[in-house]
Design brief:
Elements (H helix, E strand, L loop, with lengths): L1 E7 L4 H12 L5 E8 L5 H8 L4 E3 L8 H14 L4 E4 L8 H6 L4 E5 L14 H10 L3 E8 L9 E8 L6 H25 L3 E4 L2 E4 L2
Parallel strand pairs: 1-2, 1-4, 2-3, 4-5
Antiparallel strand pairs: 5-6, 6-7, 8-9
Helix pairs in contact: 1-6, 5-6
Bound molecules: glycinamide ribonucleotide.
Glycinamide ribonucleotide (GAR) binds next to helix 1, strand 5 and helix 6.
């Protein structure tokens, strides 16, 4: 059983997609052992609690500086002894010590086709605002392993989504979630839980 901790910041629709896929049996060999948010009152914590999953907040507001927050966050993750850490809309920088300790065992969902519209400053709705500003006709989502450089780790999976002429950032965000994110993230967890992928020379390859 793959022990998974999910880190979130907001609404938690990706978390919900993972919980639903586990309940439906489309993600197997996986147990959600905890959900952690950097915000105290977010819907994602409610979603986790109502599914009986231990849910915690570790807020930077409760710590004197970033280093202390980073330590507390890492300690909370460690406490749950995860095999995999999933960033499902976790909009704060992952502590470097966490990246080092869980090397190859942290994945992130990003709402664009990396390497487009990613890196520092590209998160949540901003990604879709930038995509619309640039006038791209296709965007999408990416699941990747987390390394030190933001959004630079090996890509596990990607899915394209069409942009329509009258899209607003909110409309595009929803379409990318529905057509890509909520499918890709559970699939990636299932692939990892069932040993279907491995990383070779910085690239993810399928073994089955
Ligand atoms: C999702 O679109 C996710 O891809 C994005 O935040 C949103 C969270 O929504 N993550 C990033 O931008 C990371 N760089 P959710 O809380 O409803 O899952």
């Amino acid at each position: 059983m793959l022990r998974v901790v999910v880190l979130v910041s907001g609404g938690g629709t990706n978390l919900q997609a993972v919980m639903d896929a586990i309940s439906a049996g489309s993600v197997t060999n996986t147990k959600l052992v905890g959900v952690i948010s950097n915000n105290k009152t977010v819907k994602s914590l409610e979603r986790a609690r109502s599914a009986g999953i231990p849910a915690f907040s570790v807020s930077p507001k409760d710590y004197a500086d970033r280093a202390l927050f980073n330590e507390a966050l890492l300690a909370k993750v460690d406490e749950m002894q995860p095999d995999l850490v999933v960033l499902a809309g976790f909009l704060v920088a992952v502590p470097p010590a966490m990246v080092a300790r869980y090397s190859g065992r942290i994945i992130n969902i990003h709402p664009a086709l990396i390497p487009s519209f990613c890196g520092v400053g590209y998160y949540g709705l901003k990604v879709h605002e930038k995509a619309l500003e640039r006038g791209v006709k296709v965007t999408g989502a990416t699941v990747h392993f987390v390394t030190e450089g933001m959004d630079e780790g090996p890509i596990i999976s990607q899915k394209p989504v069409c942009v329509e002429d009258d899209d607003t950032p909110e409309v595009l965000q929803r379409r990318v979630m529905e057509q890509a994110e909520w499918i890709l993230l559970p699939q990636a967890i299932d692939d990892i839980a069932n040993g279907r992928i491995r990383t070779e020379n910085g690239r993810v390859v399928r073994t089955q």
